[in-house]
Design goal:
It contains 11 helices and 14 strands. By secondary structure, it is of the alpha+beta class.
C-alpha cells in the first residue's frame, strides 16, 4: 500500500497565525518604547526594544519607585498592561488606576510645590509571592507554644505532607534557648519556656510545589518562615535536601521531640561534616557530639582528639575565669581584720631580742581548722626576724614551736643542735 501524501498546512491559516504573532511582538516593542520614554524623562537607563524576560519587569519596578506625577503613573501603567497583555513576562499584577496611589499618611501631609501634584510613590505592579521549590524548611515561632503543643504539631506536619504529596517529611519541637524576654504590660514574666517548631518537606517527583502563598502551612494562626533549598545541580540538591532533613531529625540542644518518616542510616546516610558544622555552631553539646560522632564511625578518633582539646581549653579558661572573679570579689570586699595577738606569743618573741643558749617553747593548742599551720609559720618568721634584727640568736638556733592535736603533740621546728623530740613535757595552757 502506497504511503499517503503528507498534507501541507493551509497557507491562509499559517499566514494568519504569523500575522498575529508579529502584531503581538510589535505591541510588546511599542510598550518597551513607551517605557524607555518614561525612563529617559526620569533619568533611568533604557532598554533595547527587543528586550524580553525579567529586564522589563525590573525597569517597571525601578520606574514606579521614582517620584512621578499622576500622568506619568498612568502612562507607566498603560505600558505595563500592554506588555503583559501581549505575552510579555510579568510576575505580578498590574494595579488599576483606582487603587494605584499608595502614598503614606505622613507623605500626604507634607507640603508640595505648586504645579502638578507629585505623589511620592505609585503602585503600578504588585509582585506576588511564589513558593516554588522541591525541598524547604518551615520555622514556627510563637510564645503561645508549650511543651504539649508538640503532639498537635506532629499531626499537622504529617497531614500536610500527605496532602501536599511530599515524599519525605520531618518535624521537631525545640526550646528557644536564646529567646528574648517578654516585653510590654500585657506580657507576664511567669518564667515559662519559649518553644518553636521546625518542619521539613522534600519532593522527589522533580516538580515540588508552586504556591502563591503559605496559607496551607499556617499552624494555630502562626505563619512560618520559609527557607528553601536552592542548589540547581541534581546531586548537590539531594545532598542539601537530606542535610536539611537530618538537621530537623537529629537531637540538638533544647530539642523536646522529633519525628520523621525517613530515618538516618536506614533510608539515607548522613555526612560527617554535617555533625561538625552543628558542633561548630554550638547546636549540640559535647556529650551529644561524642555520641553522634561514634555513629559516623570513620574519623571518630580525630573528632575525639578535637573534643579533648576543646574540653581541656574550656576547663582551663573556666579556672582562670573563676580565679579572676574571686580576685575581683576580694578587691571589692573591705579589708581583712588584723590577726589576734596573745600575750604569751609576745612574751615568746621577747626572748629572741637577747642572746641565750636556752629559750622556752611555744605550743599552739587547738582543734583542726583554726589556721594553726598559718599561725605557726607567721610566728616562726617573726621570731627569726626579731633575732636577725637584734643579732641575738646564733645561726644554728631556730625557734621551737609546737602545736597540739587531739591525738598527740608534734614538733614542727626545733633547735638545730637537738634532733630529739621533747616528749613528756607538761601540757601547756590553751590560748584563749
Amino acid at each position: 500500500m502506497a504511503p499517503r501524501p503528507r498534507r501541507r498546512a493551509q497557507p491562509k491559516r499559517k499566514a494568519k497565525k504569523q500575522a498575529l504573532k508579529t502584531e503581538r511582538q510589535d505591541a510588546r516593542r511599542a510598550a518597551v518604547k513607551a517605557l524607555n520614554v518614561i525612563a529617559a524623562e526620569l533619568g533611568v537607563a533604557t532598554l533595547p526594544v527587543h528586550t524580553v524576560g525579567q529586564k522589563v519587569q525590573k525597569l517597571i519596578k525601578r520606574l514606579q519607585a521614582c517620584r512621578i506625577t499622576e500622568d506619568t503613573a498612568n502612562r507607566l501603567r498603560e505600558a505595563a498592561a500592554q506588555w503583559q497583555s501581549t505575552g510579555g513576562y510579568l510576575d505580578g499584577v498590574v494595579v488599576p488606576a483606582a487603587g494605584a496611589e499608595v502614598a503614606s499618611a505622613e507623605e500626604s501631609c507634607t507640603e508640595e510645590p505648586q504645579g502638578d501634584p507629585v505623589v511620592s510613590r505609585h503602585k503600578v505592579l504588585i509582585v506576588g509571592y511564589r513558593l516554588r521549590s522541591r525541598a524547604f524548611m518551615l520555622t514556627y515561632n510563637s510564645r503561645s507554644f508549650t511543651k504539649h503543643t508538640w503532639h498537635l504539631f506532629r499531626q499537622f506536619c504529617q497531614e500536610t505532607a500527605r496532602r501536599m504529596g511530599a515524599a519525605a517529611w520531618a518535624a521537631c519541637f525545640e526550646e528557644s534557648l536564646h529567646a528574648a524576654p517578654p516585653s510590654g504590660p500585657a506580657s507576664s514574666s511567669d518564667g515559662r519556656n519559649v518553644y518553636h517548631g521546625h518542619a521539613y518537606y522534600m519532593w522527589e517527583d522533580g516538580e515540588g510545589v508552586s504556591l502563591r502563598n503559605t496559607d496551607d502551612f499556617v499552624f494555630q494562626e502562626v505563619r512560618p518562615r520559609v527557607d528553601t533549598c536552592t542548589p540547581t545541580n541534581s546531586f548537590a540538591f539531594r545532598q542539601a535536601a537530606l542535610h536539611g532533613l537530618w538537621y530537623v531529625t537529629v537531637s540538638k540542644r533544647g530539642t523536646v521531640a522529633a519525628a520523621a518518616n525517613r530515618e538516618p542510616w536506614r533510608d539515607y546516610t548522613p555526612a560527617a561534616p554535617w555533625l561538625v558544622s552543628l558542633w561548630n555552631a554550638h547546636k549540640v553539646t559535647h556529650d551529644q557530639f561524642e555520641m553522634l560522632s561514634a555513629q559516623f564511625r570513620s574519623g571518630h578518633a580525630a573528632r575525639m582528639k578535637d573534643l579533648a582539646a576543646v574540653l581541656r581549653t574550656e576547663r582551663a579558661a573556666a579556672v582562670r575565669a573563676h580565679v579572676e572573679r574571686e580576685m575581683r570579689g576580694l578587691e571589692a570586699a573591705p579589708a581583712l581584720l588584723e590577726p589576734r595577738t596573745f600575750d604569751e606569743v609576745e612574751l615568746f618573741f621577747s626572748y629572741f631580742t637577747r642572746a641565750a643558749r636556752r629559750r622556752p617553747m611555744l605550743v599552739i593548742v587547738g582543734a583542726t581548722g583554726i589556721l594553726r599551720r598559718q599561725r605557726r609559720r607567721r610566728c616562726r618568721r617573726r621570731a627569726l626576724a626579731v633575732a636577725a634584727a637584734g643579732a641575738a640568736a646564733p645561726p644554728q638556733c631556730f625557734p621551737t614551736i609546737f602545736y597540739e592535736s587531739p591525738r598527740h603533740w608534734e614538733v614542727r621546728a626545733r633547735p638545730a643542735h637537738s634532733p630529739a623530740a621533747h616528749w613528756g613535757a607538761p601540757r601547756p595552757a590553751r590560748l584563749p
